[in-house]
Amino acid sequence: MLNTRYWWLEGAPTDQIRRGIGEVFDKFDVETIAPGYGCILRGRKVVARHYRMLDDFLKACDRSVAVSRYVFRDEER
Amino acid sequence: MAGKMPREIAPGVFWIGDCLAQRHKCKTYHGYNAAYLIAGETASCLVETGHPKDFPVIERHMGELFARGVPPLKYLFVTHQETRHCGGLGRVLKTFPDALLCGDVSDYHLAFPQYEHRMRWMHEGDEIDLGGRSLMAVEPVIRDLRTTWWAFETRERVLFPGDGFAYSHYHEDGHCGLVAEEATSLDLPDVSSTFADLALFWTKVADMNAYCDRLDLLIERYGVKTIAPTHGLPITDVKATVPKVQAGLKAAALTPESGTNEKLQLTGAGAASPAV
Questions:
Q1: Which of A5, A7, A11 sits opposite B207 (nearest CB)?
Q2: What is the pLDDT of residues A34-52, one digit of tens each?
Q3: Measured between CB atoms, which of A12, A67, A73 is closest to B205?
Q4: Nearest CB neighbour to A73, from listed B139, B202, B205
Q5: pLDDT at residue number A26
Q6: Where are the domains of chain A?
Q7: CA B43/CA B119 separation, integer angstroms
Q8: Residues B175, B179, B184, B190: is their CA dihedral positive or negative?
């Protein structure tokens, strides 16, 4: 994600984002995720695994553990 | 605004296009959706295509300039693959069959395979020669998409930052068609902050001091004299005006994002935010 649309996530207050996404998954029993750009994710196990991966990634980017800095256009991490 | 255009903001650099009006907090917010025509000695280059609705206006403005002796359109440079920046691309390439599309040309061939042979990749520092002046791809400090390039015109030192320096203006105060220094009643830090909140959401959570520092370095490195943004008012006094825009970006980063739900409560059904 840091190498595509979300170069700015590292060091951002992702706890707020995690809470927002968590509320969606708490409220709805999601069976399928149909993103605009990624592959379609079908089935509760697949959805749960990808939700965990996203949440872990966001947690690792949070400003409590990472520093926001200028990111160059072609920088890859 | 279209009636006031084309407007020459630096010698041989013409501002064309129209405003885009949207509702927010029960007010009509105007943002520019500018395009610019750069006239060299042998060729001209269009920077951005304007909003799709604006192609008839853009075409008319370019026609007026060509009738005045501006060299033919040989290049189209778009900062990135978003509708407000490249939405007229197909019609520009169709209308001007000798024009080449330049920049980061990712994905355009998928929409316009018939024009793929007229697409040219640019990398940082690459230049388009217009005769006596050129247009260079430069670091896109504040960007909407990863594929963004900014452009810099080398003779008059004009920076084309796409979504950088994006802010609305007050239609009721007659700001349409004015440069930043003429719109004296415009609260530049406030409209810059509002635009960041509604459209460039990542600027709310990143360290904008670091991005503003980088912006200062870029401006100093190239000796930028004029800034020609796609959505904000053109800046003709860089030293006086850029700090005000930066103040807006830094202020926006210190206040919570308004959020989709809160926005709906404030503006009512059918309200739109000014996507960049």
A1: A11
A2: 998 889 999 999 999 999 9
A3: A12
A4: B139
A5: 96
A6: 1-69
A7: 17
A8: positive
Token pair of B213, please? 């520092």
Q: Which of 1.20.1560.10, 3.40.1010.20, 3.60.15.10, 3.20.20.210 would CATH assign to domain B2-267?
A: 3.60.15.10
Cα gap A55→A36, rounded to integer Å: 19
Q: Across the interface, do B146 and A11 touch by the CB < 8 Å criterion?
A: no
Mutate to test the interface with A, among B207, B216, B217, B258 (most CBs of A within 10 A): B207
Pairing of strands B100-103, B73-77: parallel
Q: Which amino acid is at B45?
A: C
pLDDT tens for each residue of B165-177? 988 888 888 888 9
Q: Do A68 and B210 touch (CB under 8 A)?
A: yes
Strands B134-138 and B150-153: antiparallel
